[in-house]
Amino acid sequence: MFKRKASLPLTTPNSIIHSSLGYAIKDINTIQAQRQLSRLYNQVISKGVMKDIFEIDCKQLQSELLSNKSPLATWNISLKDLQVKHYLLARVLALLYDNMLTIKSSGVKVNQIQGGLIPIVEICTHKEIFTNGISKELKGKNVYFASQLMSSDGTRLLRYKDLKHRTKINTQGRIPSWFKFIETKLIEEPLKSKKVKTDYQLGYNIHSVDIKIDNLKTKNWITTFHDKPIIGRVLDNSNEDKICIEHWIQDLENDQISPSVQLPILKKCGRCEVKMNQIRNKKSNIKVRFITDINIENCVKINANLIQNNCYIADMAIYEALAQAECKYYRKTSINECIIKKVNGLFKYIHPSDYRNVLIEIANSLTQETDIEIYTDGSMKNVATSEILIDYAFVINAPIKKSFNCEIVDNLSSNKTELMAVILSLMICPKAAN
Question: Which GO MF term does the entry hold, naming one (predicted)?
Fold first, then answer.
């Protein structure tokens, strides 16, 4: 049939059909590619109903691929690697890709999906997305980015159960293989910590948390920001704007692994660095440690159920509940866009957050300064005991009077303390300052 179409004698060797040599005819694959390219181009520039149908085909294929852009804009899959079935458009694009042909037209719509970071197609190959069931489970769920599966502070992967608060994914039953596969891609040691690899860590998503909080009652559970993100239970809400809470903390069974992989069990705080007051419970005559004057607008309401021995289990990971409170705090206080950039810049690596906030406050006070005088030091000596404390510090003498110091716990080194003091000093200074 091909010989008749090409007006060739029937005695022409079949090998000639697949070669441009001998009879000076085009290779059959070249002819197919050119015809498909012409057909595809006509669909791109078409109008009316045909254009609408073609755009629907593109969006369906985009959803199947979990791509954040139209397949016409970012196609890089060859025909031999193609995993999509029953999509003629996908096979045409793969054929054109193999022959180094692309569509360049103003009629091509990128259809870029925004609102997330780290597209899933950038951390998983096309084959991995289909062989591990990622496409099957996530298509139609509006999940295209790894950031949708991560905590609000962008440093940890959410538990599978916690995806119900973010997406349309049904999280009942056991953890599926597709989630475990993504977990191995993002996390170094999933059994020890939920913290993602440095390359995938993001900044605070300050717009991810709803700022409204309604019907806050006594005994409700909340997270808030009080020098640091904390979790507590409402003791008194008689004031419209302020509440009094009892401080609770996560009950950790194993100190050899991260709290992020342990159950979100809550227990009353016995003693910690958070500033508190004490009162006696009128019914039990037991001292209760509480925090007063907590701003309701900085609170995030969570749910927790009693399990045993005055212990409760939260319905979401503790690290995510605390991260939401921190994001809400930054959203309400970070009116200036440059402050948000500081929070999501190098400062996001400073932990705990109360140290980070002190540094950001100092940095904000130096924003307009051009000449700054800073003294740095490490390994400070305790005069009373002659003990060497592995600390680092800096003191600002001009144009304002400020100081900061912090203790090093891990990997003790005098060189490290000196270097960290200098690095922190540079971080708080404006770029153009002397």
Answer: nucleic acid binding
Q: How many CB atoms lie within 10 A of CB 34?
A: 14
Q: What does pLDDT average to over the chain? A: 81
Contact assessment for residue 304 and residue 310, using Cβ atoms and an 8 Å cutoff? no
Chain segment 196-234, per-residue pLDDT in tens: 998 888 877 766 666 667 778 888 899 988 878 889 888
Q: Which of 183, 179, 208, 178 is nearest to 197 (CA)?
A: 183
DSSP 3-state percent helix, strand, coil across the chain (nearest 5)? 35, 20, 45
Q: How many CA atoms lie within 13 A of 34 on its CB side?
A: 6
- Are the CB atoms for 420 and 413 separated by under 8 Å? no
For residue 149, pLDDT beyond 70? yes
Q: Which amino acid is at 221?
A: W
Closest CA to 72 of 43, 50, 52: 43
Measured in whole angstroms, the distance separating CA 20 from the mean position of its chain's CA atoms is 52
In a 13 Å sphere around the CA of 39, the CA atoms on its Cβ side amount to 12
CB 20 within 8 A of CB 27: yes
What the block records as the tokens of 47 is: 């109008």
In 271-363, beta strands by DSSP E? 277-280, 287-295, 300-302, 304-308, 311-314
